Structure formats: structure tokens, C-alpha cells
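Q: what sequence does this backbone want?
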């Protein structure tokens, strides 16, 4: 695999958005500065053995103090747009009530900096950093949290609505639900298994309520949600295996996209009722709130999922890559299935299969499931690899030759463009853009600093930024497709 920059650039439509994405908690640091309140993730990281190497995000990339330099890195990439998230506890420390002027000022500066450099801001309201008082009151298991996020949306609309060109209400409610409240390997560390389903419902409800708040405030920017999508296949044939695939597909995909795009929860085999009954008890009023028309749909794609019956052996192809502790397994002896490996695909440092063709399949499945699918942005895609810094023999400059990441990004972008081009498997999908996850190495949640996804290498001792080869590669793509960064592009 591997596509040349010239061939890839030639596939990119003139009005296609190229961007990079980050999230506040993963990059900002400065967790106790200028009036920021604690988040559920600060509390989770402070508990023993939750995060690889006992890391926390107290400093992360120190982006709070280095924002202008980081925006310059984005500008020099030549991308059209930057997707970032607002830190809810920096703006509204208690998750309710008063706001924090210093936190607001930071995002004012960020937005002004972006716009002055012709970079279109895509702003995520919620990328997992729940204010701690709300987490302590039950977090997403508590329906109230949905109304608190809607209040926060109204605040954000008032403060930043004049400058944000695209809003994402919530990032990956799937991951928060399954990892945070189902398995307990993300904040808040609640291993409730199927009792997590209401948390997912409350997050999609929060999306709908936040949309209403943004619309009521009359923001001129477009509004959407970001869901992660993973095509699900059975490791073996047979009735039970198909049933387990259906279960995982509802839990991971349908539960978060059906109510938004179809106005109802997924239909499922009645045998799955013990696990999914909550979804049949939701009111029509909630479904109406959740299914308001979107301006765009945000889709994150990283890898497909292969499901096998019973708990995992966690050895052989089911083992975690070296360096990742067992408590990070997305598995439980109490689940009727486990995620199993793919012999035919290379794996990233996280152990994720590198399967670009499944991005085309993901888009085709979305098109088949949702005939009224709005325009789509791939709001995240990327990969972690064990990057190594070397001194350039000629210049003596530090350098990271991340060829695997270049191939990953090139092959995935090409697969998405080919699938959605006339004659492609997902030709009815109106694909508008692709955001690389991520600008720079950062705090990768439970994996701490062990997983590097960035186009820019970060030395976490010195905070030195070292653009990797993939950064130069994306620069080449943006200039080859004739990017015009002199004006804000949408
Ligand atoms: C996604 C998250 C993002 C990052 C990438 C690797 O699930 O949205 O914050 O952690 O995975």
C-alpha cells in the first residue's frame, strides 16, 4: 500500500476541507491555573494504576501557554480547518452556574488567532472532560447532566458563536459509554457493563438539547455530532456469532447514530432484550429532541471490529501490544463476546488493525442505513506508532521518519475519497472533509503518553515540538492540491 502525494492530491475535490483535530484535556495542561475547575478525568488519572505509567494531564502539551506557537504549526501545514474542544471546567468550573473569565479569554484568543491566519474553527463542546461536581453527581448516568451540557452550549454560543464555523456537540458518546461506564477503563471508571446503556442515551439526549440551545441562540455556524463508527464482523460463522455481532453493532454504532439520523433506536433481535431493553423504554419526546436535522454528520474512523464469542483468551492475536497493561483490555469475563485480532492486517502501536478498505465499507454502511445522511466530515482518523527521534546526518536537526503514519493517512484518505467518488461503494455520501487525529502527540487517555498519534512529535520533558515526516507529507498534500489559505475556507 501507499499512495503518492501527487496521486492523492489529484483525488481531492476543490472544496474538500483538510484539517487537524485535538481535544482540550489531551493538550492544554494548566489544569489548576486561572480558575479552571477539576474534571472527572483529572480525578480518574489521580487514582493509582488507571493510566499507563501513572501519567496525568497536568501539563500535557502545555498548549494553554503555547497556543500561538501551536496555531502557527497548524497554519504552516496549510490545512483549512482546526477542530478543537472547549474545556467545560475551564469555562464553567462547576459545570453549572458562573463562568470563568480567564478561561473564556483563552478561547477568545485561540479563535482570533485561528481566524487571523485563515483557519476555519470547528469547535467541539464536549470531548470527555466533565466538570468533577457533575461527575460526582452521577455523570452521564444522571439525566441532569444532559441539561447541564445544554446550558453550557448556550453559554458557548453567546461567547463564541460569532466566530465558530462548525459546532460538534459531543465527541464519541460510544467511547465514553462503553469505556467509561461499561468497562470502567476510562473516567469515571464505572464497570457497569450493560447498566451503561442509559449513560449513552443521556449523552445523545444532551446532543439534542445542545443543538436546540445553539439553534435558539441563532449561531450562524453549522451544527453536527461526532460518532465513531466501526464496521463489525464475526470471526466465525453461525447464529450465535451473528447475534453477538448484532449486539456489538447496536452498542457501538447504532445506539448513537439511529436516534440521531432515524429518530428511533435500533431494531434488534428479541434475544438481545436482556442487554438492550432500556432502548425500548425511551420516550417519543426524547427521540424527537435527539433527531433534529443536522447540518453535517461527524464520523470518526480508526479500525473495524471482529467479534468472537465468550471472554477473550487475551493471548496470541487477542493480546495487547507490549507495554500496555492488562487493565486496558477492552474486555470483561462477564461479557458474552470479545474483540479478536485480524491475522491479515498490520497493527498500530495500540494494536489496532490497519484496514483502510474498511473506511470505504463504513461509509457504504452509513449510506445504506441512513438514506437521509447529511454531508459528512471525517472528524478524526489517525494512528499511533512507536516514533523514534534521530539526528539528521547532514543538518544535525532532530527528525522522526514516521513512514507508517504517512501510509496510514494516505491510504485512509484515498479509500474515503474513492468510496465517495462517482461509481464508488458509498457514492451517495456527500463527503466534505477529513481531519487528521492529531496535530501533536498528547495525553492519550488511559494510555497516557505511551501512544503517539501526532503529526508533530512532542518531547514531554522539554515541550520541544518536532514536526515529523508526516507533517511535511500533509504540507505537501495541501500545497499540491493548491490550497488557498489566504481566506477562511469553509
Ligand atoms: C478517539 C478520541 C480521541 C483520541 C483518538 C485516538 O477515540 O476521540 O480523543 O483519543 O481516539
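A:
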Amino acid at each position: 500500500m501507499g499512495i503518492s502525494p501527487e496521486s492523492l492530491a489529484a483525488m481531492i475535490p476543490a472544496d474538500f476541507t483538510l484539517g487537524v483535530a485535538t481535544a482540550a484535556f489531551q493538550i492544554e495542561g494548566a489544569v489548576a491555573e486561572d480558575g479552571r475547575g477539576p474534571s472527572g478525568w483529572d480525578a480518574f488519572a489521580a487514582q493509582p494504576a488507571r493510566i499507563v505509567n501513572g501519567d496525568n494531564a497536568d501539563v500535557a502539551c502545555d498548549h494553554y501557554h503555547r497556543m500561538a506557537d501551536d496555531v502557527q504549526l497548524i497554519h504552516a501545514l496549510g490545512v483549512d480547518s482546526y477542530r478543537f474542544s472547549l474545556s467545560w471546567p475551564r469555562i464553567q468550573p462547576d459545570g453549572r452556574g458562573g463562568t470563568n473569565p480567564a478561561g473564556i479569554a483563552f478561547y477568545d484568543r485561540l479563535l482570533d488567532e485561528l481566524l487571523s491566519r485563515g483557519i476555519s474553527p470547528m469547535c467541539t463542546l464536549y470531548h470527555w472532560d466533565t466538570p468533577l461536581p457533575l461527575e460526582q453527581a452521577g455523570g452521564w448516568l444522571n439525566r441532569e447532566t444532559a441539561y447541564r451540557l445544554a446550558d453550557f452550549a448556550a453559554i458557548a454560543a453567546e461567547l463564541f458563536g460569532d466566530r465558530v464555523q462548525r459546532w460538534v456537540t459531543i465527541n464519541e458518546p460510544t467511547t465514553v459509554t462503553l469505556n467509561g461506564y461499561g468497562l470502567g477503563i476510562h473516567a469515571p471508571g464505572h464497570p457497569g457493563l450493560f447498566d451503561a446503556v442509559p449513560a449513552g442515551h443521556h449523552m445523545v439526549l444532551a446532543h439534542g438539547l445542545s443543538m436546540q440551545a445553539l439553534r435558539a441562540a441563532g449561531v450562524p455556524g453549522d451544527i453536527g455530532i461526532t460518532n465513531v463508527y466501526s464496521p463489525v464482523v464475526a470471526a466465525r460463522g453461525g447464529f450465535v456469532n451473528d447475534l453477538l455481532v448484532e449486539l456489538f453493532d447496536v452498542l457501538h454504532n447504532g445506539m448513537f447514530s439511529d436516534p440521531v439520523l432515524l429518530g428511533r433506536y435500533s431494531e434488534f433481535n428479541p434475544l438481545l432484550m436482556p442487554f438492550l431493553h432500556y432502548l425500548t423504554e425511551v420516550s417519543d419526546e426524547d427521540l424527537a429532541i435527539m433527531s433534529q436535522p443536522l447540518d453535517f454528520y461527524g464520523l470518526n474512523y480508526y479500525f473495524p471490529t471482529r467479534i468472537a464469542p465468550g471472554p477473550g483468551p487475551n493471548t496470541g492475536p487477542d493480546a495487547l501490544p507490549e507495554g500496555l497493561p492488562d487493565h486496558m483490555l477492552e474486555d470483561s469475563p462477564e461479557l458474552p463476546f470479545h474483540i479478536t485480532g485480524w491475522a491479515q492486517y498490520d497493527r498500530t502501536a495500540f494494536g489496532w488493525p490497519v484496514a483502510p478498505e474498511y473506511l470505504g465499507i463504513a461509509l457504504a454502511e452509513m449510506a445504506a442505513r441512513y438514506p437521509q445522511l447529511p454531508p459528512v466530515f471525517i472528524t478524526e482518523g489517525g494512528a499511533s506508532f512507536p516514533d523514534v527521534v534521530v539526528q539528521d546526518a547532514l543538518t544535525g536537526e532532530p527528525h522522526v521518519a514516521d513512514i507508517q503514519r504517512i501510509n496510514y493517512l494516505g491510504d485512509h484518505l484515498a479509500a474515503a475519497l474513492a468510496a465517495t467518488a462517482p461509481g464508488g461503494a458509498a457514492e451517495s455520501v456527500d463527503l466534505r472533509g477529513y481531519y487528521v487525529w492529531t496535530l501533536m502527540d498528547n495525553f492519550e487517555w488511559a494510555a497516557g503518553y505511551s501512544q503517539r498519534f501526532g503529526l508533530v512529535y512532542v518531547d514531554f520533558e522539554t515541550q520541544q515540538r518536532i514536526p515529523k515526516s508526516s507533517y511535511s507529507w500533509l504540507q505537501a498534500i495541501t500545497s499540491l492540491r493548491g490550497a488557498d489559505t489566504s481566506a477562511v475556507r469553509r
